[in-house]
Amino acid sequence: MSRAQDANRSFFPFGNPFRMISPKGSKVSHQLLLVLQAFEATFEERLTRLIPESKDEILSLSWMTLAMRLLCESHSDIKTLTTELELPVNDWDAKWIDVYFDISMKLLDICNAFSSELSRMSQGQLLLQCALHNLGSSSSEQYDRACSSFDGWKQHISSGNPRIEKCGSILDGLLGSLDLPKVKKSAKGKVLVQAMYGVKVLTVFVCSVFAAAFSGSTKNMLDLDVADVYSWAPTFKRLQNLVNEEIRVRFSCGRFAVLNELESVDSSLKELYPIIRGVVDPTEMKLLPEIVGQLGRSSGNLSQGLDLLAKEVDSFFQVVLTGRDALLSNLRSGATVIHSNVGVTEMQR
């Protein structure tokens, strides 16, 4: 992998794979193998759905929305799998409780960072709407106001977001969670850990892509090395290679923004500026209504895409938060005492 790993970190959203379920060893039964195979088949299907037919689809808000939706579904499947396996969540060792809360908090933090950036970009829509309103008039004064709004929009979109800049350290923590724990005496634990590994890989991949897109830098990109022993590994590698390669190409070209919808708005602005500034042949003014209409559609697509993606990010936040609440509920019902600082804080909330 592209970053150093912390071998002591892993996260267990809905169950304890280290608890000894059976005292007679950990040989995985045929029935458990069928359960795992069904889980991984569904997981691979989701990976396949994320592979775009065209590179132009990569880093569109619709593709990112799909990625976040499939991530939510995969995490929900882990919860369902844990229920099917009847794995208990109480009586955890204190260190594993600490690990779970630490990693799940990182997921909540990165969701908050993404939501912050989506909200910031949505705020810029007010500037575009103001500019479009001013373009409804043919006066030079209104054109000047429109240009001022356009300049403000570009400056707003290009400005940095401190919360996104912190995603690198969060990703380092998530990357460390990919290490597979050793489960020697629990067949059910082995099944859960293997299933969770795929979901964790998808989580880190999607989060790294989002962080790269929002930060405008490849420093947050990760190239995950998945062993070929997993049935879904070839599909994931194909997805990762295609997406990461395209992102790097876009950054190397010095584009204003890597998100398709932002680029579409910027392209319309580049056509508009010479016309409303009067630096082109006056006869080209006849193109103004068409270009303004194109800008309006691009702005509308951007606004709608941001809203839909924000909803999916919030859904993922809720999935993670629900998992934490479920664990706390189980710990309370089992009268489990947590001695760590993190656990005590969570139990007192």
UniProtKB/TrEMBL annotation:
Keywords, ordered alphabetically: Membrane, Transmembrane, Transmembrane helix
GO cellular component, one term: membrane
InterPro entries per record: ROH1-like
TM ranges: 191-214
Pfam family of the protein (one): ROH1-like
Membrane topology: Single-pass membrane protein
Keyword flag Hydrolase: no
Compartments where located: Membrane
Statement: the UniProt record of this protein carries the keyword NAD: no
Family (UniProt): Belongs to the ROH1 family.
PANTHER family per UniProt: BPS1-LIKE PROTEIN
Protein name (record): Protein BPS1, chloroplastic
Organism: Vigna angularis var. angularis
